[in-house]
Every structure is written in C-alpha cells, then in structure tokens.
C-alpha cells in the first residue's frame, strides 16, 4: 500500500521512473511500492527504524530509533539509494532569469489555498510576499519586548494594511516549549532550538486561534542569496565555494536538514506548514539565476526583491532582516535563562547544557 505526503503517488512513480527531481510539487515523502522516498530538497521528512524500512513514520516520535531518509533517496530492504540529485544548471540570461523568477513566484503565491491558513510574519520580503498570496489571512509574529522582528512586522503590516497578531514571548514560554521542540525534532543544540522555538510558538498561537495551516517563507534565503556569506565567498571562511553561485548552492544543499527541523517544530504545535517559495518551479528558476541576480555588495536576494516589486511596499521589499533566533531575541533570552540557572558562559556549551537540564 502506498502512502505519500505532499503529492499523488502516480506523480512520484513517474518521477522515480524518469529521474525528474522537480516533478511539480512542493515536496513529498512517504512509502510507495514497498520503498520509502523523500524529495530532492527534503521538504517533507520521513523516518524508519535502522535497517527496517517497513517500520516507518512521518513523525520520528513514533519510532524507537528514528533515522531520516536522506533527501533525494529511496530506502528499501537493501538500504538507501540516491534517486535524485540537485541540478546545477548554467545560468540563464539576466532578463530571462528575472522574468522566470517573477512568473513562478507569482504563480506559487496564486496557488496557495487560503482555508484555515495563518501567516508566520517577520516583516521581511519573504514573509511579506507569502502574505500577499493570502490577503485575508492574519499575520503572526513572535518576539520578546523590543525585538526587531516585532517592530519590523508591525511597520510592515501597517504599510500593507494587514491584521497582525503579536505573540509576546516570555521566559515561561521558552521553558515550557523547549522540551516540546527538542522532543519533536530530536535536537538539543542551542542554534536549532533557538530557530525552532519561535516557529513552534507562532504555530501554537495560530492553532489556538483556530488555524491548522501556517504559511512560511522558508527557503527564500537559501535559494535567492539571503546570507552575507554568499556576497564575497572567496574571502568568507563559512563557505568552501569561491563564487556567488557556488556559495548559494552550498546554502541550498543545507535545506534538507533545516527543513526537517522546521517542519517537525511546526507540526508539533498541531499545524501544517505551507511553503510556497519552495515549490519545484520556484527552485528550478532560482537555480538558473546569474550571480548578479543572487547577491551583490549592495543587495542580497536581488531577483526575489525585484519579483516583489508592485506586490510588497518598497520599504518592506528593501528591508534587511535578522535571522529569526536573533530578530525575536530568543537566542539572547536562552543565554540569559541558562546563566540564571547556573550555566555560566565560561562553561563549555552552557546554553546546550541548560536545554538538556530541562529535558531531565
């Protein structure tokens, strides 16, 4: 019996037969014809017990020793076999590449089904674009008092004429949610926890408000060049590549690990994530961008910002955004909580040890 999350089984069978990594979905995972499959970007996770693909689940907490199926792989009785690899196409011409991104982003936003949907909103161009696809959906932002994301989201929502609901975080929220997030994702390192917590808490608030789907802007930074390390990679030790396109490819290849964490953190709140900027057609167009439409010394996510012209107010379209763990102050407050609990900065991995203490 086949059970696939994210796409019809027949479409996945066709992709298996012809090796197409982008068959026109937003990602898929599951069991088909006796094998486990996961799409090339790992947009939907699936797990099994070691050496036993017949004991599997979309939720790792269902298993004693969950092992994720690698992105692009098929897992059968003989182990894992890579079925799809991330393409590395030559760049298209400047005008053609921009036109393609503008077209596919618009189409992806038009295809978002609005029923029972809220939007995770930080006030940046990614979440603002997603919000334009569902003009009647409420926007939710999380953060501690004075946090950058809250201020940016308030101003962006005002400019867009949208309803914004602020999830005002407290230390109690973090202490309560850390075991939930760590249990759902299987991760306790401070970076993963700090990223997952605001996503989980926003999803939780959306669920309590009656929504069972949460639209997110995940993937935009990786696909379109949102990281500083992509701008001058030859002199940046954080990447191995020495070209903008090469560094961008490295960030795209990091998506499966990140998306597994984010999807599980959101689902643990009883909400299903919706990521329109990760649709196959958007990914394909992004991979064909020339360097000057990815990042320059003056601008990052160049093509995406241009695609947002006329859809998103210019101050929002042009604004820089902090990473979620910093823009919400979650990383800062985790450090504060750890020190208050006796885990001082002079101790190795003091925040990680604090997280572990809450699980005990």
TrEMBL record:
Keyword annotations from UniProtKB, A to Z: ATP-binding, Nucleotide-binding
UniProt keyword Iron present: no
Gene Ontology terms for molecular function: asparagine synthase (glutamine-hydrolyzing) activity; ATP binding
All copies of domain Asparagine synthetase, residue ranges: 117-237, 255-341
A single GO BP: asparagine biosynthetic process
Region (Disordered): 1-31, 44-96
Top-level taxonomic group: Archaea
GO cellular component terms, semicolon-separated: cytosol
Protein name per the record: Asparagine synthetase B
């Amino acid at each position: 019996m086949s059970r696939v999350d994210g796409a019809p089984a027949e479409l996945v069978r066709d992709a298996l037969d012809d090796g197409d990594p982008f068959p026109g979905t937003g990602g898929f995972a599951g069991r088909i014809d006796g094998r486990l499959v996961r799409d090339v970007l790992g947009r939907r996770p699936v797990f099994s017990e070691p050496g036993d693909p017949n004991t599997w689940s979309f939720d790792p907490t269902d298993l004693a020793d969950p092992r994720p199926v690698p992105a692009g792989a098929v897992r059968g009785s003989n182990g894992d076999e890579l079925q799809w690899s991330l393409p590395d196409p030559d760049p298209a011409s400047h005008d053609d590449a921009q036109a393609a991104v503008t077209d596919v982003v618009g189409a992806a936003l038009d295809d978002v089904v609005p029923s029972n949907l809220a939007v995770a909103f930080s006030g940046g161009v990614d979440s603002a674009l997603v919000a334009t696809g569902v003009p009647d959906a409420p926007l939710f932002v999380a953060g501690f008092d004075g946090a950058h994301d809250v201020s940016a989201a308030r101003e962006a929502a005002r400019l867009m004429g949208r309803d914004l609901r602020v999830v005002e975080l407290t230390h109690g929220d973090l202490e309560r949610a850390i075991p939930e997030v760590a249990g759902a994702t299987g991760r306790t390192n401070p970076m993963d926890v700090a990223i997952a917590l605001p996503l989980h808490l926003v999803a939780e608030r959306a669920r309590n408000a009656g929504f069972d789907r949460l639209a997110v802007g995940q993937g935009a930074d990786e696909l379109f060049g949102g990281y500083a390390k992509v701008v001058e990679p030859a002199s940046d030790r954080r990447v191995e590549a020495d070209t903008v396109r090469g560094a961008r490819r490295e960030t795209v290849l990091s998506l499966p690990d990140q998306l597994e964490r984010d999807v599980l953190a959101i689902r643990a709140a009883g909400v299903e994530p919706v990521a329109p900027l990760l649709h196959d057609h958007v990914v394909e167009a992004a991979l064909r961008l020339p360097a000057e439409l990815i990042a320059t010394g003056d601008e990052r996510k160049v093509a995406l910002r241009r695609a947002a012209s006329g859809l998103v107010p210019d101050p929002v379209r042009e604004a820089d955004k902090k990473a979620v763990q910093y823009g919400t102050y979650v990383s800062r407050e985790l450090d504060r909580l750890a020190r208050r609990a006796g885990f001082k900065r002079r101790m190795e991995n003091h925040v990680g040890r604090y997280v572990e203490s809450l699980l005990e």
